[in-house]
Amino acid sequence: MSVVAFAVIGVAVFLASCMQASIGFGMGMLAAPVVALIAPALLPGTLIASATVVTLMVVIRERESLDLRGTGWALIGRVPGTIAGALLLVWLPTRGLSLLLAAVVLGGVAVASVGWQPARMRRNLATAGAASGLLGTATSIGGPPMALVYSGEENAHVRSNLSAFFLVGSLMSLAALAATGSLHTDIMWAFVALTPVVVLGFVASRFVNRFLDKDRLRTVSITVSGLGAVLLIGQQIFF
């Protein structure tokens, strides 16, 4: 990978880490389309590992707002979803995985845009956890299902509980990827190289939170994610 290509990925991961730490999700939605365009072999492992670092730091920062009961029901659903996502990653070719990733992003963008929000009940939490596990393990984009369930809550509550879910869920996904042989040396080296960028994104989120409210940052994330998904589809169709 060239220096320029890695720099572009670094910028995307920095912005994605900042967004994840600010609104509780977004690492995959923002960074995955960029990584898929430049270095698809790094997906989904590199972003899942990077998301683990961000979510751990957010959980520590927002620990007073944790609601472990709701997170627990979502994690119960995450287990079968994670297994299904790991198997899907083995069965699908790179092209199919890239198109699936783009479709997931556009689906998340469409649902978020219309403002639909399911009730935060046990059944919905478990279902969202399963969907997040499948999508997150296969494509590194597991945020939209859980973000829908928690949308409308107070900012710190959203960040802390989504981060707690994604922290444990990301560890599950990494274990499943390792079990299926989908974690290779290039992914781990990329993760190590990008970790300082991830930490900087977390630090930057403290300043971003002072100037951008949740609605504005959410609008930016939806717009950028949608454009990234469209570019990814174009690349797979025309190149």
UniProtKB/TrEMBL annotation:
Annotated compartments: Cell membrane
Pfam families xrefs: TauE
Protein name, as recorded: Probable membrane transporter protein
InterPro entries: TM_pro_TauE-like (IPR002781), TSUP (IPR052017)
Residue ranges crossing the lipid bilayer per the database entry: 30-60, 72-91, 97-116, 162-181, 187-208, 220-238
Family, similarity comment: Belongs to the 4-toluene sulfonate uptake permease (TSUP) (TC 2.A.102) family.
Organism in which the protein naturally occurs: Gordonia insulae
Main location: membrane
Top-level division of the source organism's lineage: Bacteria
Keywords: Cell membrane, Membrane, Transmembrane, Transmembrane helix, Transport
PANTHER family: MEMBRANE TRANSPORTER PROTEIN, TRANSMEMBRANE PROTEIN YFCA
